[in-house]
Write a structure and sequence with these properties.
Elements lengths: L2 H6 L6 H21 L6 H20 L2 H11 L1 H23 L4 H8 L2 H13 L5 H18 L14 H19 L8 H25 L8 H29 L1 H4 L5 H13 L6 H18 L10
Helix pairs in contact: 2-11, 2-13, 3-5, 3-10, 3-11, 4-10, 5-9, 5-10, 6-9, 7-9, 8-14, 10-11
């Protein structure tokens, strides 16, 4: 898990691969979060997810943390904000929302992620989407809608929204702020950064998970619950966040954000492979639109020809 060593192989210098894998791990996380909604209370799920990730990362970050501690302490308000938004707040609200909303609604709300990241970037730093980026985001969003409505956009008129959708949207608002704030993260070892924010997020979740536990909510201990907890502690937490932070570092939040739209694509593939859903023409059309939009939004403009 040593990032500098991995970087020398080129893997950590491939933002599109890193961000695609991030979306895959997060898509599975949404499916599992909905699946576990009746067995694992949401705030306890969020806390145990980051507690597990903390225990996994600490042995790898142990040597780097003392060296980077002066920089972490210098930027403590920013680090606390990153822990509160992208780690604690986002995950607590997202899992909470999955207890009250349907998968279709949750995926539609998740698709607002790129626009929310762009809005936070504009509000905080004055960033503006290029027309290429805006066009790519809208193209991929259209592909998402084609997949989720099974090729009939008229189904959108029949959608109804509930408190779970509001919680999911608020979670995305917090994550958009997290993604925008990553620009200012201290220049420290990536493992130190992840360990500090992950541990901070887990600590922030302690009182909320404890209150939920004391209210009588309990985890139903069975093999499936343990498997879900093991997965969410490793793949969508530690590995996906490492990939996402590195991807944003390489290409910036506005070019990284369209990869959010790959989550419904991966969700559809999971449904086809594991839930027996039959592939349809609308799947292919939606996939093509999403991938085209991501390509348009992330492609760098051609350099201007020198004047003669």
């Amino acid at each position: 898990m040593n990032v500098p060593a991995a970087s020398r192989t080129g893997f950590f210098d491939r933002p599109y691969l890193l961000l695609s894998l991030t979306s895959l791990f997060w898509a599975i996380n949404i499916v599992l979060g909905r699946y576990a909604a009746g067995d694992i209370p949401p705030l306890q799920l969020a806390f145990l997810r980051w507690l597990g990730a903390s225990l996994i990362i600490l042995p790898f970050a142990w040597k780097a943390l003392p060296t980077d501690w002066p920089e972490i302490r210098k930027h403590l308000p920013l680090m606390a904000a990153l822990s509160a938004t992208g780690i604690g707040g986002y995950n607590a609200l997202a899992y909470w929302g999955l207890n009250y909303t349907e998968a279709l609604n949750a995926l539609l709300v998740q698709s607002t992620g790129p626009l929310l990241i762009a809005l936070w970037g504009f509000a905080l730093w004055g960033d503006r989407l290029s027309w290429r980026q805006f066009g790519g985001i809208m193209t991929s969003l259209t592909g998402v809608l084609v997949i989720l409505t099974r090729g009939d956009l008229a189904h959108l008129a029949a959608l109804t929204f509930n408190p779970g959708d509001i919680l999911t949207f608020l979670a995305l608002v917090l994550y958009g702020l997290y993604a925008a704030l990553l620009r200012k993260r201290p220049k420290i070892h990536q493992l130190s950064f992840l360990a500090a924010t992950i541990i901070g997020g887990a600590l922030l979740l302690v009182p909320f998970a404890a209150a939920e536990f004391l209210s009588g909510a309990r985890i139903v201990m069975k093999p499936q619950s343990i498997a879900v907890l093991c997965y969410v502690a490793l793949f969508p937490s530690l590995i996906a966040y490492m990939f996402f932070v590195r991807g944003v570092e390489l290409i910036g939040p506005n070019r990284a954000s369209p990869f959010f739209h790959l989550m419904p694509v991966f969700g559809s593939v999971i449904a086809i492979l594991f839930l027996g859903e039959q592939p349809r023409l609308f799947h292919l059309l939606g996939f093509m639109l999403v991938l085209s939009g991501v390509f348009i939004a992330t492609r760098r403009p051609a350099p201007a020809e020198p004047a003669h």
